[in-house]
Structure formats: C-alpha cells, structure tokens
Specification:
Elements lengths: L2 E3 L5 H6 L13 H19 L4 H6 L2 E4 L2 H11 L7 E3 L11 H7 L7 E6 L8 H10 L8 E6 L4 H14 L5 E3 L5 H10 L2 E4 L10 H8 L4 E4 L13 E3 L5 H13 L1 H12 L5 H5 L1 H19 L1
Parallel strand pairs: 1-2, 2-3, 4-5, 4-7, 5-6, 7-8, 8-9
Helix pairs in contact: 5-8, 6-7, 6-10
Length: 301
C-alpha cells in the first residue's frame, strides 16, 4: 500500500460493516468487534475499537490533520508504526458566495439572525444539546432569530431531534435542512451570523465544517474536545469538553446581544494562522502533500 491520509480514524469500521468485519482480525479480532457491535451499537464500537489497523500497518506513510490524530494513533497502537507521520492541515476552499447574495437566496430579512450547526445530526455532534441551549437562551420565541441544522438527520436521534423541535415553539424558526447540495451549504456558511460546532466521542477526526465556518469569518462556538481543542481560543468561544446547557445558552445569548463581539470573533477566526490562514495557501499545502506522496513512492521503488 502507498500513502494513507487518515482524516477520521474510525471511518474504516463503517466500511467494514458492509463486509462482515472480516478484515478486523488484524486489529482486535472479529469476535470482540461483533460483541461490541451487538451490545453497544456501531457508534460505541467505532469509539472503543479503532478499525484502521490494517491500513495504518500496511501504509508506506501517513498523513493526518491534527495533533489529536497523532495522539490517537499512538494510543490505539501503543506506538505509531515504524514510519514517519506528517501533520498537514486539512485543505478547504475559499468562500464561493458573498454574504448579501447568500442571505437573499435563503430569504433572510436584513435584521434576521441566523444560527447554524453544520453537518449530520448525530449524538457525536450534540445536536439535541444545541437545541436545548437555544431554547434555554429564550431565543425560540424571538421571531428574528433562526436556528438551522444544516445537514441530514437520520435514525432515531434525528427523529428525537424533530420531536424536540416541535415542542420548542415557533417551529418555523427552528429547522433542519436535510442533506444539501454544495451551493446550499455554502449559502448557509456565507449567511450565518453564528455557528455552533460541538463534538463528543472524537475518533481524531478533523471538522471540515468548523474550518469552513472560520474561513467564512463566522463567529464560532466549539467545545474543547478532540481536534476542536487545538483551535485558537482568541478566535472562537471555547466551552468545556463536557458542555453544559446553561453555559452554551449563555454563550449564544451573549453573542446574539453583542454584534461587536461577533464581528471581532469572525475577523479573528478568518485570520487564524494555524488553521484558516494555512488553508487559504492551497498551492503551498497541495505542494507539500504532493512532495510527501512522491517521497513515499520513491521509497517503495
């Protein structure tokens, strides 16, 4: 095998679900995996048992996008396999739509406040907690404020969130888009006044949505979990790893009431040296990745 880019250290387990987990024998073994799968579900199995062992061990080299991923690899396998691991920031595209056009496309009034949470609705995104904090902040009754979950909401968790929305009041101001195309995704990024991207049960994944939010200059609330904890605390509102509803509600309410703070955070996020500024240097990062791949190919010959 050649070079392996490890963006999410648990995603291989999802792939193996289609093939009966036969490849899992080189890591923890099929019996243990199947037991975890049956007793605790796929989410718990992914969190507890890394499934990328065959890929990591066979790869000629590894690229990851965060220090948390490097630490997770070390934790999962005792030591990182006997090869170099390079940390290269996840590349994101520059903004593709301006704010005025985006807000017009979404039918927003000039005074509307749009709060978004991007990505699939799931327990790992703490989507129900986000909605609970929005309600506790007293914003469900404010006509000019919208909360939109931009992404699909599958399974029982999605159904539970839908029921929670219906009981929150003013359901037209709280919504979930379902799966969206690229234009709609970027339109919400450009139009948003505030974004909330929380995490739990991290597998070392890097949040592309959080980086996109920063790249668009949208003020961002995160929690100190996984790769999110590596963000500059001067450029985001960083809550504790184990987020409490009152703390998130207070942060949301403060930013809604303080447009100057939103502006400051948005500018700081867009200028983040460690993340956004690096991601805007597409050519340099792409060249680094290309050089890394060519180096590994040369080592195989």
């Amino acid at each position: 095998m050649g070079l392996s880019v490890q963006r999410d250290l648990g995603e291989h387990l999802l792939d193996l679900s289609r093939s009966g987990c036969s490849e899992r024998g080189t890591a923890y073994g099929p019996p243990l995996l199947r037991m975890a799968w049956r007793t605790a579900g796929v989410g718990s199995a992914i969190e507890r048992y890394p499934a990328n062992g065959p890929v990591v061990r066979a790869a000629a080299g590894l690229i990851v996008h965060s220090d948390a991923s490097v630490a997770r690899l070390a934790n999962d396998y005792g030591v990182v396999p006997d090869r170099e691991v390079r940390r290269i920031p996840l590349l994101r595209v520059n903004p593709v739509i301006d704010r005025a056009a985006a807000r017009a496309a979404l039918g927003l009034a000039p005074d509307d406040i749009l709060i978004c949470s991007f990505g699939i609705v799931a327990p790992e995104k703490l989507s129900q907690l986000v909605l609970a904090a929005f309600v506790e902040a007293g914003l469900a009754a404010v006509v000019s404020v919208q909360l939109v979950f931009v992404g699909s909401a599958p399974g029982e968790y999605g159904e539970a969130l839908a029921r929670q929305m219906r009981t929150a009041g003013r359901s037209a101001r709280i919504s979930c888009t379902g799966f969206v195309d690229d234009f709609t995704y970027h339109a919400h990024l450009a139009a948003a006044d505030l974004a909330i991207q929380l995490r739990s049960g991290s597998r070392g994944e890097t949040s592309a949505a959080a980086l996109d939010v920063l790249n668009y200059g949208v003020p961002l609330i995160v929690n100190a979990h996984g790769t999110m904890a590596e963000l500059d605390r001067a450029a985001v509102v960083m809550l504790d790893d184990e987020v409490k509803v009152p703390d998130l509600a207070a942060a949301i309410k403060r930013l809604i009431d303080e447009p100057a703070e939103r502006t400051m955070l948005g500018r700081a996020g867009k200028a983040l040296d460690q993340h956004c500024a690096q991601h805007r240097k597409q050519r340099g990062r792409a060249e680094e990745g290309r050089a890394r791949i060519e180096h590994e190919k040369a080592g195989e010959n």
